[in-house]
C-alpha cells in the first residue's frame, strides 16, 4: 500500500489518541492493554510483526508501543518500515534485550524512548503521557509557524512560550534576541545576553564546534543541523546542560544592481537564527543505558562484556611489552547456603559487601568484574612474577575471612580462586578464562578456601569429568544402570531380614562403577532427578520379580537424594509408581540422611509426613555423621536408625568400650526405633554389637552386594519375610 496513512488522519488534540500495542507474549500484551484501557486512548493490538505492519498500513496511529524481539519481523525492521513510508507515529520501544546495540539501534531509528523490561507501571504511563504531550507540542509548534507570518505580537508570545531556546545572532556572533526559555534554562537575564558574544555561554571544550554553529553562513542543505553543545548555566551550582542546536542562516537580498541584459541579486550575510533544545535528560538516559550495558547493576562492577574488552586491551599491551598478566576466577564458597537460608535479598547484600571488599584489594589498573551469580573475574596486568598474583589472592582470602553482617546475621564465607598466567597458560581471552575456571574448580575439589595456579594436568582431569558427565547422560538411554543388593541379617536367627540396594553403572569402557564414582557428578550436573526416577522404577520392577520368584512379601526402603526430596512433585511420583506397579505403600521404607534436615527442614518434614500418611515408613541413614540435632528425631517421622560403618570399623576388640556406638543404641532403644549396623566385616564387631543390643547387621562378613538373580536365590534359600533397604 503506497498511501501514507499518517496524512489521512493527523493528530487532533480533541480526538482520542490511537495507540498500537505490539508484543508476541500474550500475557504481556494483555497486561499492557489492561493498563492503558479506560485512559482516553483508542487501543489496537498486534501479536507479531506482520500484524503490526498491516495495521500501520491501514490506519493512522499517534503512538506505537513496540517490542523488539518478535517471531517474524523484528522491531527494528518495523521502525524502518515506519520511516520508509513516512508514517507519522512516535515509537516507544519496550524490550528485555540487555545489549546496548538494541537500544542504540532503536534510538537511531527515531524511537521516542526505550523502556527496559520489566518496567514499572508508573514509568510506562509517564512515558506514554510525555510522548503524546510532545506530539501535541510538535503540532502546536507547526501551527505557531503559520501564525508567526501574521502577527508580530503573537510571534513574541509564542516564541517566549517555546520549550526550546530561540535566539538570533548578528554577523559578529552577538546575541540580538533570546526568548524567555534562555533565562529559565541558563539563568541569565535577557539584558545580560543581548549584545554579548555567544562564547560567554559555551563550554570551553566546545568552543571550536560552536564557532561553526553560531557563525553558519551557508544557506543550502549543508547548513549546520543538530549539533550538540554544552552551555554554561548561571545558576550558582556549577551544573552544565547539553543542548541540541538547529541553526539556519538569515540572508537578505540587497538592492539590485542593473547590468545590461541581466539582473543580479547579491546575498549579504546578516546573522544566524537558531533553536537550542535542552537534551540533558536524554543524554543522561543514554549515558545510563550505556553504563548499564557494561556494568553489573547489583554490584556496580564491570560485567563480563566490559571485562572481556579490558582483558583484550591488557593482552594487546602485554604482547607489545613482552610482559605477563594474570586472570583470576573467584567463586564464593558457601554463598548458596547463605542465599538459601537467609533469602535472596540478604544474598544480594552479601554479594555487594564482598564486591566492595575485593575491590579494596586491587592495585591501580586491575579490573574486577562480576561474571554472574557468586562468580567474579579479575585481570592483573603488568605482572612482575607469580608472587604478585599470590599476594593479591591472599589479600582476597584474608578480606573475606572477616565475618559479614547482614542485618544482625553474622555470616562467614571463603573463596576458591583459580589463576591463569599469560602467555604460559593461554594467549586468548577464552583460553585464560577457561583455564582460570578449571584451576578454581581444582581448589574446590581439595577443600575450597584457597587459590591455585592452572597446570596442564588439570585440563586432563577436567576433560575426564566432562567425558564422565557426557557418558552418564547416555547411561540412562543405553540402560547401563543396574541395582545390586546387599542382604541384612538377623544374627540371632541367621535369617535375611532386609537388603540394601546399591546402584551400579555398567560402564562400557571402565567396567562396573560404584555410586561414589559417579553420583557426585549427577548431583552437580542436575542428573540426580532423572537417575532417581529411574531408580524408583527399577526397584519396583525388581520387587515384582522377587515376589513372583519367592512368593515372599518383601518390604522395600529407598534412600533418597536431598535434591530429589526437595523436588515439589516427589510425593506424587512415588505414589504414582507404587500404584502403577501394584505395590502396597506399607511395603516401602525410605532412608534419608541427616543432612536433609538442614537444607529445608520444614519442607522435608511435610514431604515425609505425606509419605507416612500414605503408609510408607522412614529410616535415618548414616546416623551421627551429619549436622542435625537430636531434636530432629522428634520432629521427623523416623522409624529406624542405621549405625554408620565409620563407627563400626573402629570396633577392634569386643571387650573394649565404644561410647558412640552405645549412645546410638541407647537412643534407638529409648525412642523405640529399629536399629541396623552397616559395614560389619569381622566377628569381634558382630559380637560387640549383638552383646550391646544391636542384632540386625549388614556387611562383608555376611554378604557382598549381589545382582538381582543372586539375591532372589538367597531369598529362596530361606523361609520367611524380608526387609529391603535401598541406597542409590
Q: What's the number of structural domains?
A: 4
Envelope shape: elongated
What fraction of residues sit in β-strands?
A: 15-25%
DSSP helix fraction: 40-55%
Secondary structure tally: strands: 29
**What kind of oligomer do you see?**
single chain
Main sheet specs: 10 strands, mixed
CATH homologous superfamily of the largest domain, by name? EAL domain
The CATH architecture name of the largest domain reads: Alpha-Beta Barrel
How would you describe this structure to a colleague?
With 728 residues, the chain is an alpha/beta fold. The chain has 4 domains: 5-146, Response regulator (Rossmann fold), CATH 3.40.50.2300; 151-253 and 265-285, PAS domain (Beta-Lactamase), CATH 3.30.450; 297-454, Alpha-Beta Plaits (2-Layer Sandwich), CATH 3.30.70; 469-727, TIM Barrel (Alpha-Beta Barrel), CATH 3.20.20.450. 43% of the residues lie in helices and 24% in strands. It is built from 28 helices and 29 strands. The strands form 6 sheets. Strands 20, 21, 22, 23, 24, 25, 26, 27, 28 and 29 form a 10-stranded mixed sheet that branches. Strands 2-1-3-4-5 form a 5-stranded parallel sheet, sandwiched between helices. Strands 7-6-12-9-8 form a 5-stranded antiparallel sheet, sandwiched between helices. A hairpin with a 3-residue loop joins strand 21 and strand 22 (511-513). Helix 3 (49-58) runs parallel beside helix 4 (75-84) and helix 19 runs parallel beside helix 21 (570-581). Residues 1-9, 244-264 and 721-728 have low confidence and may be disordered. InterPro entries: Biofilm_reg_signaling (IPR052155), CheY-like_superfamily (IPR011006), EAL_dom (IPR001633), EAL_sf (IPR035919), GGDEF_dom (IPR000160), Nucleotide_cyclase (IPR029787), PAS (IPR000014), PAS-like_dom_sf (IPR035965). Keywords: Phosphoprotein. Residues 323-456 form the GGDEF domain. Residues 465-719 form the EAL domain. The modification 4-aspartylphosphate is found at residue 67.
